[in-house]
UniProtKB/TrEMBL annotation:
Keywords: Lipoprotein. It comes from the Bacteria. This is Putative lipoprotein.
């Protein structure tokens, strides 16, 4: 079962992603990007005898240093599979897909279809439940079902199934333990909030880690989580709701689409100045029409400095004449330098 199981997991991920790996479209936020010096890992179409030149401990330390990169989840899955821990192999493969989903490289139906095919394969195997192999298969079945429940946000069933898959001995910041923590966080468990920040280092580059934190916390802490999620991938699946969370915490319910993080504002200004094209600032203008808030005021101060350049001064003056209300007032103020 071992080689065919891992090859199935690998092929399903490749089909879902279209290729091994996914591009990151996030903004520079100080987190360590996937490193070019990352150790080699097993390609998904490797022969059954190929072993990644990396250990589970090294993978964990890479993740804690913010160095997760596409393919690392597959390498981890292969290591777990080689050890006969099929449940952990399923979870590691889901981690690979979760990363890809967070960066927009795969959609949720593709993720869930892939896990369902893994589940169908596992349930088709005839193994003695009294053997170690049978227990491993049972754990994998529960893990796959738990992943599907988690993806469907059925937190009670997800927690029950993941607990049944035997992850009690995992490190406190393993992906399975993170999933269980999310199940508790999403159901309002206060203790989960106290534990959630403690595993931040390992998931600093995972959009969903920040998204779940944004949903689980309140006020400024929730906004901080939401902003970091947006920064990792402004066009990602989680960004729209994170913008709504920030707007709601600012008393600007219904205005989430106009919210831009400070990193987005800086990135927009940098690109506009580099191209000497003020039209690249258009994405920021809806933010300027909102009532006073930290993001609008940050943009106001940042854009005002650009009025020292004639091409930008002219653009702001023109946009002010074409706009009305609060936006026109602010653009007029900016254009005066």
């Amino acid at each position: 079962m071992k080689s065919s199981f891992f090859l199935l997991l690998s092929m399903l991920i490749l089909i879902s992603l279209g290729c091994l790996g996914c591009s990151r479209e996030g903004l520079a936020t100080g987190a360590m990007p996937p490193t070019e010096d990352a150790p080699p890992v097993a390609p998904a179409n490797a022969s059954p005898g190929f072993k990644p030149s990396i250990s589970l401990g090294e993978i964990a330390e890479l993740e804690r240093a913010g160095g997760y990169f596409p393919g690392l989840g597959l390498a981890e899955s292969g290591l777990h599979e080689s050890a006969g821990d099929y449940g952990a192999a399923v979870i590691a493969s889901y981690k690979e897909l979760s990363w890809a989903y967070g960066y927009g490289s795969v959609d949720k139906p593709s993720v869930e279809d892939g896990i369902r095919q893994v589940l169908e394969y596992l349930e088709s195997q005839s193994l003695n439940a009294g053997t170690d192999e049978g227990k491993a298969r049972s754990n994998a079945v529960n893990a796959a079902k738990g992943v599907l429940a988690f993806s469907g946000e059925d937190w009670k069933d997800a927690a029950s199934l993941l607990n049944a898959a035997g992850f009690d001995g995992d490190e406190s910041d393993s992906f399975a333990r993170w999933m269980l923590l999310v199940c508790s966080l999403e159901t309002g468990d206060e203790a989960a909030r106290l534990l959630y920040g403690a595993i931040r280092a390992r998931y600093s580059n995972f959009p969903e880690y920040w998204y779940r934190g944004a949903r689980g916390f309140k006020g400024n802490i929730a906004s901080s989580y939401a902003e970091q999620c947006i920064n990792l991938n402004p066009q990602g699946h989680f960004a729209p709701e994170c913008r709504k969370i920030i707007a709601g915490n600012l008393g600007l319910g219904g205005k989430g689409e106009a919210i831009r993080s400070k990193a987005e504002i800086e990135d927009g200004i940098k690109r506009s100045v580099s191209a000497e094209d003020p039209r690249l600032l258009e994405d920021i203008l809806p933010l300027m029409s909102l009532p006073d808030n930290v993001y609008t005021l940050y943009a106001l101060g940042s854009l005002k400095a650009l009025a020292a350049y004639p091409v930008f001064k002219e653009y702001f003056s023109e946009q002010a004449s074409l706009s009305g209300g609060r936006l026109a007032e602010r653009l007029s103020y900016i254009s005066r330098g």
